Amino acid sequence: MSAAQAAGGPVEPLVALDGVDLVLDGREVLSGITFSLASGHFLGLIGPNGAGKTSCLKVILGLYRPTRGRVRVFGVPPWKLGRKAHHIGYIPQRYLPERWAPFSVFDVVMMGRLCCIGLGRLPARRDRDLVKETLVRMGLEAEAGRPIGALSGGQLQRVMIARALCRKTRLLILDEPAEGVDLPHQDRLYHLLKDLQAERGLALITVSHDVSMLSAYADELACINRTLHVHGHPREVMESHDLGRAYACEFDFFSHHPQGPVRGHHHHAPGA
Amino acid sequence: MGDWTDLLAYDFMRRALLAGFAVSLLCSVVSVFVLLKRMAFIGSGIAHAALGGVAVGLFAGLDPAATALGVCVATALGIGWISERGRIHEDAAIGILTAGIMALGVVLIGFARAYQGDLFSYLFGNILAVGRADLIELAVIAVVVLGFLALYFKELLFVAFDEEVARVTGIPARALSYGLLVAVACTVVAAIQVVGLILASALLVVPAATGYQLARNWRGILLVSLATGWLAVLGGLLLSYRWDVASGGTIVLLLVALFFAAFLVSPRRPGRG
Fold first, then answer.
1. Domain count of chain B?
2. Contact between chains at A119 and B151 (C-beta distance less than 8 A)
């Protein structure tokens, strides 16, 4: 807890982007992105394909440096996190590791502990116990010894989440977790994420093009299509006129939200 | 049996067996990473570039093994740099770079006519002519490379499996990737002593490929890779001496035969396991 917090002052956001521009291969991918994420909150990033959502994640992860603007994660630029990088868990898009990779489920989840074990040291009993606990929590203890190539898409995804969670993770970042996973699994996945959020005070950033699912579970939504078109409570965002503009199309939507279903239609006239 | 034990009385044979043991150990371990990171083409390219390095040595009157090491390490770093840029197709770029260096070697060799005999050893290997100095060089390379691999083994496996996520968790993925490339370059130079630069990549590819036929986990692959390497190198060495045939070629033939045997009994074949 910082001195400001101890004095009852404002708590620093976990993630803060301020006027972030990103140019990749001569193309402006992000422009003027400004938003922040508080600790323990679940943010959904939505937007059409190729809108820059994944690039935005990579800026937060420190894999891309912004051409302009500031990005801070746990108060520092993400490429300067050092040991604090342990607090971030990342599950990339369309995780289909080579089916042939000769690693067991246990091996893969243990990889998530390596940053804590340190170079030149072997995993200790404590590390193995933590991995086992995480596997139990994710319902994977029966699969621990199986090669990862033998798992289903949904199981594999849970292995990747387990890998991201077997340390003091405070922020979980998922890129299109619903892709390649069938509907019942998607539902279970989002329930799992909400449970983890509650159990561990985890903050989450999830990118998805499935607006209805995400809007039902996230605490806030941000719609990105090169620029940030709208950001706020899911209900607000879904009803906002800017959403149609961001997607540059008309669409109907129906979303179950804990506070009541949201139903509507976005009308967008080209050039509007 | 008396025949075989007599062999150990010879200095050159003892040195050859020691060299074979060390090189095989090194190649079999590195082979696992070559398999995991799909680096077979890179290994092959670095071996070709070694000709450029050897030629520079022969031409300039320097130790060809040392110049080969220098050129191979530089090539490996160049390959790492190309892979990061990703602007042209990576495999084409690597092919172009290594072909260029090899061609330079071919041209330079033409100017060093007096050293044709040495050239033959570098092309095809000459383990039976390994001297004390060569053995010491090999030992140093083996200790350094195996030391690096042992120290960072678990991180290297993570980087081979998922470099991006490894980097995000704070592991120095980029440095380790480059380190691995340099390790492959050093191993290629060691392998050249035993089987020559034409066949060197076989020692980096076949042992772990054989392991993959018989094991489902990296630990099993490593064990089979080690066993295959030792059997092929030591066995090939003894057979080539017995039958008075090229040692490099015998070793690789034995290696490939072991691979096919594993392939035939492999539980991975469709319809089995």
1. 1
2. yes
- B84 inside 8 A of chain A by CB: no
Judge whether B102 lies within some domain: yes
Look at residue B78 and tell me if it is in a domain.
Answer: yes
Please tell me the distance from the alpha carbon of residue A70 to that of residue B122, in angstroms, as a whole number: 55
User: Would you tell me the crossing angle of helices B90-109 and B40-60 to the nearest 10 degrees?
Assistant: 20
Tell me if B135 is assigned to some domain.
Answer: yes
B124 lies in some domain: yes
- Where are chain A's structural domains? 3-266
CB atoms within 10 A of CB B112: 19
How far apart are the CA of A129 and the nearest CA of chain B, in angstroms? Answer: 18
B78 to chain A, minimum CA–CA distance in Å? 22
| Host domain of residue B167 | 2-264
CATH number of A3-266: 3.40.50.300
Best mutation target among A64, A79, A94, A119 (most B Cβ atoms within 10 Å) is A119
pTM of the predicted protein model:
0.89
pLDDT tens for chain A, residues 1 to 272: 555 545 555 678 999 999 999 998 888 999 999 999 999 999 999 888 777 899 999 999 999 999 999 999 999 999 999 889 999 999 998 656 666 789 999 999 999 999 999 888 999 999 999 999 999 999 999 999 999 989 888 888 899 999 999 999 999 999 988 877 777 888 889 999 999 999 999 999 999 877 888 888 999 999 888 888 778 888 888 777 667 666 765 555 555 555 555 555 655 544 44
ipTM: 0.89
- The three-class DSSP label of residue A222 is strand
Cα–Cα distances in Å, from B233 out to A42, A51, A253, B210, B226? 58, 55, 67, 14, 11
Cβ within 8 Å of residue A72, ≥6 positions away: A15, A16, A18, A78
